[in-house]
Specification:
Blueprint (H helix, E strand, L loop, with lengths): L8 E4 L6 H9 L8 H10 L4 E6 L2 E12 L5 E10 L8 H6 L1
Antiparallel strand pairs: 1-2, 2-3, 3-4
């Protein structure tokens, strides 16, 4: 049976154990993969701004964000990377991660 989006678990990035799944997902869409250091730069500086979507424990979606204070005012947030498993696209997982 196809997984429904309601069965997915969304949670904040936990630790290095999440990185292999995150890297595999994002690399699938890139012609030139990022180095591990690029991922670590984001998840170590803004761990509270990186989230994964899990289907039975497997990472099927990821969003990695950063925030920075803008010289003219409030803190701004940026989405650095967003990826969803090709087989599970068009089901609102990316939207769920952005929320």
């Amino acid at each position: 049976a196809m997984a429904t989006v309601t069965e997915l678990e969304y949670r904040v990035y936990r630790d290095e154990g999440d990185l292999p799944g995150i890297i595999a997902l994002i690399s699938a869409d890139l012609s030139e993969p990022y180095s591990i250091f690029t991922y670590r730069y984001f998840v170590h500086q803004w761990p509270e701004l990186s989230f994964v979507a899990l289907d039975a424990g497997r990472i099927v979606g990821v969003i990695i964000c950063k925030s920075e204070e803008h010289k003219t005012g409030p803190i701004r947030g940026y989405v650095a990377m967003l990826a969803v498993d090709k087989a599970l696209r068009k089901r609102g997982i990316g939207r769920g991660l952005i929320r």
